[in-house]
Amino acid sequence: DTAVSQTPKYLVTQMGNDKSIKCEQNLGHDTMYWYKQDSKKFLKIMFSYNNKELIINETVPNRFSPKSPDKAHLNLHINSLELGDSAVYFCASSQQTVTTEAFFGQGTRLTVV
Amino acid sequence: DAKTTQPNSMESNEEEPVHLPCNHSTISGTDYIHWYRQLPSQGPEYVIHGLTSNVNNRMASLAIAEDRKSSTLILHRATLRDAAVYYCILRRGSQGNLIFGKGTKLSVKP
């Protein structure tokens, strides 16, 4: 069983489109995250979310929005895609405590053409 | 978020020990030291974490300086599969977000 799963694994789309990436965790964790890894391999946190609070990295454009239908899912919606959005996006989950490990999905490679 | 400093890259020979250093001179009392690694084309994976005492698990050991301003991840016998980028991260207080730096790219030679 995959602990954190993301779909799709690859996504190629045109500029201006709206797309979503889905993330599900089966670990019973209370907190989920989205990270972006750009071409220089730098991993940057975009959002962290639990059932109480959404914390947004202030550098993330408001075209990006996380949506959580339930505790096990945190989907990433991206409106009006731009070339610079091309990257690998990772979903992760953990308990909201510093003493436990986080689990990451395998990533979604988004290419905007 | 407290900052960590790691060498950009290191090399090791297969089956030899590897010591990956990390400096975190601005660490606070509530910061846990976490290590993650990212294998090529994969998501990051947890390696080990600690607060003050040295820690061992099946993957690695973590040696933490007495003043907590530095730590060292020890891979006892490097394998080719250990080639990855290793990230040293301070995970703080109530929020606990993982903020990644640039990490150390470890190459393992046969």
Q: Helices, strands, pairings?
A:
The complex is a heterodimer of chains A (113) and B (110).
Chain A: E1 4-7, E2 10-13, E3 19-25, E4 31-37, E5 43-50, E6 54-56, E7 64-67, E8 75-78, E9 87-94, E10 103-104, E11 108-112
Parallel strand pairs in A: 2-11
Antiparallel strand pairs in A: 1-3, 3-8, 4-5, 4-9, 5-6, 7-8, 9-10, 9-11
Chain B: E1 9-13, E2 18-23, E3 31-38, E4 45-50, E5 55-56, E6 61-64, E7 70-75, E8 84-92, E9 104-109
Parallel strand pairs in B: 1-9
Antiparallel strand pairs in B: 2-7, 3-4, 3-8, 5-6, 6-7, 8-9
Protein model, in words:
The complex is a heterodimer of chains A (113) and B (110). Chain A has 113 residues and is mainly β. Chain A contains no helices and eleven strands. Chain A has strands spanning 4-7, 10-13, 19-25, 31-37, 43-50, 54-56, 64-67, 75-78, 87-94, 103-104, 108-112. In chain A, the strands form two sheets. In chain A, strands 2, 4, 5, 6, 9, 10 and 11 form a seven-stranded mixed beta sheet that branches. Chain A has a four-stranded antiparallel beta sheet with strand order 1-3-8-7, with no helix packed on it. The mean pLDDT of chain A is 92. Chain B has 110 residues and is an all-beta fold. Chain B has no helices and nine strands. Chain B has strands at 9-13, 18-23, 31-38, 45-50, 55-56, 61-64, 70-75, 84-92, 104-109. In chain B, the strands form two sheets. Chain B has a five-stranded mixed beta sheet with strand order 1-9-8-3-4, with no helix packed on it. In chain B, β3 (31-38) and β4 form a beta hairpin. The model of chain B has no long low-confidence stretch (mean pLDDT 93). Classes of the chains: A mainly beta (113), B mainly beta (110). Chain A binds chain B through residues 4, 31, 33, 35, 41-45, 48, 55, 90, 92, 94, 96-99, 101-107, and chain B through 30-32, 34, 36, 38, 41-46, 49, 85, 87, 91-93, 95-100, 102.
